[in-house]
Every structure is written in C-alpha cells, then in structure tokens.
Amino acid sequence: MNESENKKWIFIGMFAFVGIAFLAKLSVLQIFDPTYKQIANANAIRKLTQYPARGYILDRNGEVLVYNEVSYDLMVVPAELGAPLDTMALCGLADIDIADFRKNLQNIQDQVKARKLGKSTPSPVVKQMSKLEVATLEERMYEFPAFFLQPRILRRYPKPIAANILGYISEVDDKKLKEDPYYRPGDYIGNTGIEKSYEEVLRGKKGVKNIFVDNKGNPHGSYMNGQYDTASVAGQNLTSTLDILIQEYGEKLMAHKKGAIVAIEPESGEILAMVTAPSYDPNLLVGRGIRKNYGKLVMDHNLPLFNRAIMDGYPPGSTFKLLNAAIGLQLGVLTPATRYPCGGGFRVGGHVVGCHSHPGPPDLLFSIQTSCNSYYCAAFRDIVNHGRNTEEGYITWRKYITAFGLGTNFPDSDIPNVKSGLVPQTTFYDKWYGRGKWKPTTIISLGIGQGELKVNALQLANMTAALANGGWWITPHLGKKVDNESIRLFKRNETGINPEYIGIVKEGMQRVMTGGTGRGAQIPGVTSGGKTGTAQNPHGEDHSVFVCFAPADKPKIAVAVLVENAGFGATWAGPIASLMIEKYLFREVKRPDLEKRIMEGVLIKPDPASPTIKPSQL
Q1: In degrees rounded to 5, what are phi and psi of residue 493?
Q2: Is the distance from CB of 468 to CB of 506 less than 8 angstroms?
Q3: pTM summary value
Q4: Domain tally for the chain?
Q5: DSSP sequence for 456-497
Q6: 511 and 437, same structural domain?
Q7: How many secondary structure helices (H) and strands (E) does the chain include?
Q8: pLDDT digit string (tens) for 545-578?
Q9: How does 457-487 read in b/e, with b if 16+ C-beta sit within 10 Å?
Q10: Final residue of a domain: which of 194, 213, 240?
Q11: Buried-exposed string 279-312: b where 16+ CB fall within 10 A, e elsewhere
C-alpha cells in the first residue's frame, strides 16, 4: 500500500470516528437527556412567574394593618401577535383605557425591535386589574391568543391610617434591577416605610410554572406534569410595634392640623404610634389609580406625603431645658438649690431674651415648673464656660445632647429616611463667627431650645423615653416579631447622666403637670411628667410642643407632640399628648369636652383638589 492510500484510510477513519461520536451524542441527547428537547420546545412553553403572597403586617395586638388582594396583569407575548387585534373589544371587556393600552403595546413592540425585549418574553400591557375588572375578559381570553392574565398580589389596608409608616409597594426601578438579581422588570418592591425596611422578610420567594401553549397561544396544561415547576414561598408576617387603637386615635386628633405625634414604650423602644398630619388613605396608592392619586398627593399644598414625624426640623423650644438641667447637674454646674435671677429676661449686651412673669428667683425644680428662660440662658452659659475654653465646653455639652438621640438619624433603627436634624458642631460656629470669636452668650438661644437647633417628633419622644427610663434608651423601632419570632436587633444606649440627676429632672417634670405650665394636660388619676414648649417660627405663628411620660413611677408610654403654627405648648400639643396617654392606658377617654375641642379644631385649610383622607373616613 503506497503513501497516498495510507493517508486516504487515515482520513476515512477520522471521519468515521467523528461521525460515530456525533451520532452517539445525538442519541444521548434525544433519548436520555431531555434538556435540549426542552429548549427545542421552549417556543411552545410559557413560563409563568408564580408570585408569592406577601406577608401581612399586624399591629402589636395582632390586628391586621396590611393584607393582600389578588389582582391581574394583562400580559402579551409579542411573537404571538398575528392577525389584526380587535382593540375596542379587548379594552371594552375590562374597561381599559384604549389610548393607554395602545401606547403600552407600542412601547413593548418598540422594545422588541430594539432587541431590548425578547419576542417570546411575556410583558404586562395593563397592570393591577381587580378580579371584578377581569371577570368578563377572563371568559373570552381565547379570542385574544397573544394575551393572558397573570395573577398578582395587591396590598390592601382595612383602615385608612398610618400611610407614611407602613409605606407602599411600587414597580422596581432600573437601579434596583442592576443591584439585586432577585428582581425582574415588572416586579414590585417595598418603596417606603415598613414595606421597605422589611422587604426581604415580607416579599417571599417567587416560583415558576411551565405551561404548554399551542400556536395560537392557548394553554394546554402543565409541562412534564410540573416536573420543572418551582413553588412560590409566601412571605413572612410582620408584627409591628404599633398600637392601632392609639394610631387611629392620634390621626383623628390631628385632623385639620399640621404636625406629628410619636409615642414610645420607654422600656423597649417600641413605637406605639407615629402620626404625621396631614396624612392620606394608603389605599390611594394601590392598583391602577396609583399614578393619578400620587400626582394629586404630590401637588397638595399641605404635603400629605411628607412624614413630619421623622423628616421635618423644628426648634424644640422649652422642652430642651430638661436636657440643660440634666447636663448642668451632671457637670456640677447646677444643684437643686441653684438659683438665677430673672427680672423678666436674660440680658446680653443690648439684647434681652424675654421671660414671662413668675415668682423668683427660681431654684432648679421651680425653673422647670415655670419654664424660666432666664434660668436656662444662665445655666447654658455656665455649662459651656465649665470647660477650659468655649470650644471644649461646647463639645462636652454637645456630647451629652447627642447621647439623648438628638442630632442623629438612628442608623441602627428599622425606620427609614429619618432626618438627623441639627445640633451644630463647633465648626458650624467657627465658619459663621470665626474660630475663637464666639462664646456662650453669642449662641445663648440654645439654652432655651431655639437658635440653630432642629429636631423632629421622633427625637423628642426618644429623649422623653430616656428621661423616663432614668438615663438610657433602646433604639426606637417599628418591628416586633417576624412570624412568631421576636426581633432582637436594637441596642441599649446610655446618656452618661447619673440616674440621680435624671430623677431630679423627672421631679421637675411632675411639678409641671401638677402646678406648672402643663397642669391643663394632667390626666385624671395618673401621675405623669411633662414639659411644654413654644417653638419660635420665623415664618409665622409659633409651633406648639409638648413632651410627657406616664405613669410617673413606672412609665409605660412617652409622647412627643408638635403642632405647627398653634401657639403655646399648653394650648394644643399638651392636651393632645394627654388624650393619647389616657387612650393608651385605659383604652378609652373620659374627657369628652376636651376631646371634642381638639378633634374639631381646624388649624389649616384642606386642599379641595387633594384625595387626602377626611375625618369622616376614620
């Protein structure tokens, strides 16, 4: 055999080997391995995402705050759009806006042309239709082979309350799609509030169901008897710290007013109520009406989407004197016997910080009881001067203030988007006045809770809880249990103030309630400690501020109330706090005249174009 024939047989052998190997692999794939058969059949299989039931949100006593309701997305498979579509008939069956339908469908087709969307990828053309809306359409879906109905879960709220706390869910945005592979276009995610904080707990886990469809898009049962399906896993239920009774009651009290109420259980840091007013019915941001309603809420001049309990910055007013009293005692600058002259105000050069008429000169307890401005201007001056220099004294003072939670956004809390407010650092004043060119009397307004200080109702309630506890606080939070397991993520924080000195301040707060500026807010049969505040407002009427805890011997609730443009703390904020505490402790209120005055009080004008809730809806 010559060399050319050898090469011939070598080539024949190589081709034979490759052919046999190829046939063997093909046999394995076709006979034994169904994977490629599945791929081949992919254009005849529709993968339906099985969306899990989102976890319920409950109040601390097991009352439902948020539950689920089935809705439907009308899906289209672009590749199956063949014969001319009877748009009028399809939209008429489900009361769908024809213009919106055509716009959405065209957008899907444009994405397919741009290769941003697969031809066989189902896409929603109409979202969040109710069961009633799809009832007739469902019976005639066979007339529209490119379309099918995808079940979804909508959130529903049995009571129109706590909208800003509970938050809402909305379609996931592009940023989140890039960050988290769990989400796909069209998925929904907790956008604000508790829904956002506990998204991973509440959302559950998606599943997939594979359905055979014919060339007209009609379903013909499960593929491979469900062998390749995955079941969805329902989200876990979240028990919140909220008490629905006083949350609802607080929203009634704040009807036709601007401001906030925050109530905390001091021992645990659990938020019992977080009221922001004006508010809105959370059901407005559910379903197909969300876009229209959201636009109206955004345009409402009373800003119902703005959570004043955690976001707005107010001067704390005279409630801040409690901290200056505690710090002065801790540093040895004050004793219970310390007296400062008043004489109608505190004089700094040609400037006078005015004070109302009261007997004097007051000692420490009487200064709290009567809310003497002169006393706390002098106390602040001496606290800052207690350091080797102004800067050192101010830094020490500020350290104690922030230890009570002022100037912080509670980063280890589960309450999203809390604003820090403002407790200025020395650099703030260095920039304003020049380093070494300012002293305590330059910023004397801080002694009475004015000047540059900015706080919110959550911070004031937390401050009050720390005083009620004797100088410590648990990070305020909204989550109590996931299913039946307690959440234990929130730490104890120390203020660094001796409990003995806190006790002196608390005694002063009790005197406020029995014979001082807060006596009108005293709760019959309950010993309590409180402090009024009137926060100056350069843009209009002063804000009414009040903080309180009860019972005095073993506090179960601490409350802070801020009512915008309402004048003295004792006029509106004090009575509101008093009613909140009574409602919480006794589950009823026995002062109908006071309750009626507060509920019927109108301090703002409602926006007639707004969909915000009316008191009659509560």
Answers
A1: -120, 135
A2: yes
A3: 0.87
A4: 2
A5: -HHHHHHHHHHHHHTSEEEPPBSEEEETTEEP----EEE---
A6: yes
A7: 20, 21
A8: 999 999 999 999 999 999 998 888 889 999 999 9
A9: bbbbbbbbbbbbbbbbbbbbbbbbbbeeeeb
A10: 240
A11: bbbbbbbbbbebeebbebbeebebbbbbbbbbbb
Which tokens is 561 given?
């109330």
Specify the 3-state DSSP secondary structure of 373: helix
Helix (H) or strand (E) holding 595: helix 592-600
CA 194 to chain centre: 6
Q: Is 274 helix (H, G, I), strand (E, B) or coil?
A: strand
- Residue 558 maps to a domain: yes
Residue 200 Cα distances to 189, 195, 204, 238, angstroms: 9, 9, 7, 11
Distance CA 497, CA 555 (A): 19
In a domain, 161, yes or no: yes
What is d(CA 446, CA 533) in angstroms, rounded to the nearest whole number?
Answer: 14
**Domain span holding position 596:** 244-603
Question: What SS3 class is residue 119?
Answer: coil
Please indicate, yes or no, whether residues 352 and 413 belong to a single structural domain of this protein. yes
CATH number of the domain within which 467 lies? 3.40.710.10
Angle between helices 592-600 and 244-253 (to 10 degrees): 60
Q: Do residue 394 and residue 320 come from a single domain?
A: yes
User: Which sign does the torsion angle of CA 407, 411, 413, 416 carry?
Assistant: positive
CA nearest to 569, candidates 535, 594, 612, 603: 535
Q: Are residues 180 and 273 in the same domain?
A: no
Strands of 321-467 (E only): list them: 345-348, 351-354
Are 239 and 484 within 8 A, CB to CB?
no
Q: Would you state the torsion angle of the CA atoms of residues 436, 441, 443, 444, taken in this order, to the nearest 10 degrees?
A: 160
End residue of a domain, out of 200, 219, 240: 240
**Is residue 613 included in any domain, yes or no?**
no
Alpha-carbon gap, residue 365 to 468, rounded angstroms:
17
| Domain at 211, CATH number | 3.90.1310.10
- 251 domain residue, yes or no: yes
Are 249 and 192 members of one domain?
A: no
Q: pLDDT tens digits for 340-376?
A: 998 888 888 778 888 877 877 899 999 999 999 999 9
Query: Per-residue pLDDT tens for 437-468?
Result: 999 999 999 999 999 999 999 999 999 999 99
Residues 274 and 195 in one domain: no
How many Å separate Cα 444 from the centre of its chain?
Answer: 35
Residues 340 and 488 both lie in one domain: yes
Are 235 and 254 part of one and the same domain?
no
Residues in the chain: 618
The 10s digit of each residue's pLDDT in 114-173 is 888 878 788 889 988 888 888 888 888 888 888 989 888 889 999 999 999 999 998 888
